[in-house]
Backbone:
C-alpha cells in the first residue's frame, strides 16, 4: 500500500509539471521507435545535456520530421558542437532543435549550400532566415539523421526551448514517449564533513560509505557517527531498458527523519547556469576518477535554479546523542525510484584523523585580479576566476608550467604567458602552447603571439608547455589517381590529418573555382559531391590546401578526367 501511495504522489508531481506544457502539440521527430542514448539534464563535461539523444540503430539517413508547424528561425553548419543543426520556431511560443544531421531536407539543403558557396566555407556560422521565409508543416521532412559535430555516433539530438527566454525544457514533458521500467542504480555514496568541528566517523575527511542492497531498488549503509554540519553525495545512473547506456536521472531527493531536506530535478534550466554543474558535482573526485558524484547540498556560490525545498541548503546538522535517519531517493522521468538509507548517531565533536591545512606561496582571493610569475611564465587570474578563496601550487621547470592540478572548477578563463626569447626567430612561428594533462595526447591551446611573448586563455588548471610543430598536414587516400578518368564517381574524397597542432583550415578548388568539401572529423575525410555544379570540358585540375594551427601548409594538386 505504501509503494502505491509513493507512485501516486510522483505521478501527481509529473502530471503537474506536464500540465505546464502542451503534451499533444508536438509529434515525434522520427518515425522509428524511440530509444534514448542520452537523457535531458544528464551530467556532461562542464554542462547539463540540453536535450534527448535518440538512437538511430547505429545508422544515418533516417528522415527527421518537423514536430509542429512553424518556420526555420536558425540554421548552422559547424565541424564541432551540434554539427548541422536546424531550429524551428512554433506559434505556441516554443522552438524545437534538431542536431547532428547528415543533411537538410529539400529546399533547406539548397538554401544552406548557396550560403556556403557565397562564403566559400563549409562552416556557416549562425544563419537567421527572416520570419516565415522558410515555413514548415508538422510532419514535413526537414533533414536526415547523421553524426556531424565531431567524434559523434549516429543519433538525433532533439530539444525544445522557450522561444523568448531560451530556457531549455525536458522534451519528455511535451508528450515524447519512451519506455522505461527500470529504476535508477545507486552506485556510490560519499559523506562530507562541512566546516570547522564537523566529523564523520571521527574524521575530518570525506568518507565513502559502503552500500548494501536490501531489495531490488533499496539500499542501506551501516550506521555512521557524525558531529556538526555534514552533507552527502551520490553517484547514480538510469537504465532505460535493454540499452546499456548509463543515462541521467530526473530527480534526486533527500529526507531527514522523514521530512524533505533537499530536492532538485531537471525540468528546465538556462544555458547561462549550465556551467554550475561543476558545483553540483564533487569536481575534485570527477577530475581524479572520471566519476560524477551529485551533491545533495547546495554550494553558496552556485546560481543553479534547479533546487527546491532546501532546508539549510541540504546540510544536515548533527547534534550529540541524537539519532537521524537520512534517505536519498533517485527517480527517473517515469517515476521508477531507488533509495539508500543512512542511519546516523550524533557524537561529541573530536578528531582522531586530522587534515593538514592547505597552504602554498600562492593564495587566490576570488574577488581580486591576481598575477604570478615564475621562470619566464606568467599566470593572470581575473576577478572571480575561482569560486572561493584558495591556495594553489604554481611552478615552472624549463618549458613546463604546472598550475596546480585540474581538480578545481573555474568560473572564468585565465591567461598563461610564456617568454619566447630563448627561441630563434625562425622557430617562434612554429611554437604553440599545449595542455599536457594527458601526456599521450597534448592538446593545442589557441596560441597568440605578441613581441617576445606567447599567450593563451583557458579554464583548465594543470600542466602546460611549449611545443614545436614543423610537420606539414598530411593529405592522403584520394579516391582516384592522377590523370584518371572518374566519370562513374559521385563523390571526390580525400583524407587529411595533423598529429601535432591540428588542422585549422582547408580549401579545395576544381579548375581554380572553390568547391564545398564536407569534413568528417571522425573519419578524417573530406568529400565533394559532383552534383554541386556542372563541370565544363573533360580535363580538370583538383587543388587542396590544408593548414595547421601554427601555419604549416600543404598543397595537393591532381588532374582528373570526367564526362
Residues:
Amino acid at each position: 500500500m505504501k509503494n502505491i501511495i509513493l507512485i501516486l504522489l510522483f505521478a501527481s508531481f509529473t502530471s503537474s509539471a506536464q500540465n505546464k506544457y502542451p503534451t499533444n502539440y508536438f509529434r515525434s521527430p522520427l518515425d522509428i521507435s524511440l530509444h534514448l542514448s542520452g537523457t535531458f539534464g544528464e551530467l556532461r563535461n562542464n554542462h547539463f545535456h540540453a536535450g534527448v539523444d535518440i538512437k538511430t540503430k547505429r545508422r544515418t539517413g533516417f528522415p527527421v520530421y518537423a514536430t509542429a508547424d512553424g518556420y526555420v528561425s536558425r540554421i548552422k553548419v559547424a565541424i564541432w558542437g551540434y554539427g548541422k543543426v536546424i531550429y524551428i520556431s512554433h506559434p505556441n511560443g516554443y522552438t524545437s532543435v534538431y542536431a547532428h544531421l547528415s543533411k537538410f531536407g529539400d529546399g533547406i539543403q539548397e538554401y544552406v549550400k548557396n550560403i556556403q558557396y557565397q562564403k566559400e566555407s563549409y562552416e556557416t556560422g549562425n544563419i537567421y532566415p527572416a520570419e516565415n521565409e522558410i515555413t514548415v508543416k508538422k510532419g514535413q521532412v526537414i533533414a536526415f539523421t547523421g553524426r556531424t559535430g565531431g567524434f559523434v555516433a549516429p543519433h538525433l539530438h532533439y530539444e525544445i526551448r522557450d522561444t523568448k527566454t531560451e530556457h531549455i525544457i525536458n522534451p519528455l514533458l511535451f508528450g515524447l514517449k519512451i519506455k522505461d521500467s527500470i529504476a535508477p542504480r545507486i552506485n556510490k555514496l560519499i559523506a562530507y564533513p562541512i566546516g570547522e568541528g564537523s566529523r564523520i566517523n571521527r574524521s575530518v575527511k570525506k568518507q565513502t560509505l559502503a552500500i548494501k542492497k536490501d531489495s531490488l531498488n533499496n539500499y542501506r549503509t551501516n550506521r555512521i557517527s557524525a558531529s556538526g554540519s555534514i552533507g552527502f553525495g551520490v553517484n547514480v545512473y538510469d537504465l532505460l531498458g535493454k540499452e546499456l547506456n548509463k543515462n541521467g536521472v530526473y530527480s534526486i531527493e533527500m529526507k531527514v527523519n522523514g521530512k524533505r531536506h533537499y530536492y532538485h530535478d531537471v525540468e528546465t534550466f538556462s544555458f547561462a547556469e549550465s556551467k554550475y554543474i561543476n558545483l553540483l558535482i564533487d569536481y575534485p573526485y570527477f577530475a581524479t576518477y572520471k566519476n560524477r558524484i551529485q551533491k545533495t547540498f547546495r554550494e553558496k556560490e552556485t546560481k543553479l535554479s534547479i533546487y527546491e525545498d532546501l532546508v539549510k541548503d541540504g546540510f544536515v546538522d548533527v547534534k550529540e546523542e541524537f539519532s537521524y535517519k537520512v534517505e536519498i531517493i533517485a527517480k527517473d522521468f517515469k517515476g521508477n525510484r531507488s533509495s539508500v538509507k543512512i542511519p546516523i548517531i550524533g557524537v561529541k565533536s573530536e578528531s582522531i584523523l586530522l587534515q593538514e591545512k592547505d597552504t602554498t606561496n600562492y593564495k587566490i582571493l576570488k574577488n581580486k585580479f591576481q598575477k604570478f610569475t615564475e621562470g619566464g611564465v606568467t599566470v593572470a587570474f581575473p576577478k572571480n576566476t575561482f569560486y572561493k578563496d584558495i591556495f594553489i601550487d604554481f611552478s615552472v621547470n624549463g618549458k613546463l608550467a604546472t598550475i596546480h592540478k585540474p581538480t578545481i572548477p573555474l568560473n572564468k578563463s585565465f591567461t598563461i604567458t610564456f617568454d619566447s626569447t630563448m627561441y630563434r626567430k625562425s622557430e617562434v612561428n612554429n611554437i604553440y602552447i599545449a595542455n599536457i594533462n594527458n601526456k599521450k595526447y597534448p592538446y593545442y591551446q589557441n596560441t597568440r603571439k605578441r613581441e617576445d611573448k606567447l599567450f593563451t586563455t583557458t579554464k583548465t588548471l594543470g600542466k602546460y608547455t611549449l611545443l614545436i610543430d614543423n610537420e606539414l598536414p598530411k593529405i592522403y587516400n584520394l579516391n582516384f589517381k592522377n590523370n584518371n578518368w572518374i566519370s562513374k564517381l559521385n563523390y571526390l574524397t580525400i583524407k587529411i590529418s595533423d598529429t601535432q597542432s591540428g588542422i585549422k583550415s582547408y580549401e579545395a578548388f576544381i579548375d581554380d573555382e572553390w568547391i564545398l568539401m564536407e569534413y568528417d572529423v571522425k573519419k578524417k575525410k573530406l568529400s565533394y559531391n559532383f552534383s554541386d555544379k556542372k563541370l565544363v570540358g573533360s580535363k580538370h585540375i583538383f587543388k587542396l590546401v590544408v593548414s595547421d594551427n601554427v601555419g604549416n601548409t600543404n598543397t595537393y594538386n591532381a588532374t582528373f578526367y570526367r564526362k
Q: What stands out?
A: Residues 2-18 form the longest helix (17 residues). The two ends are 77 Å apart (CA to CA).
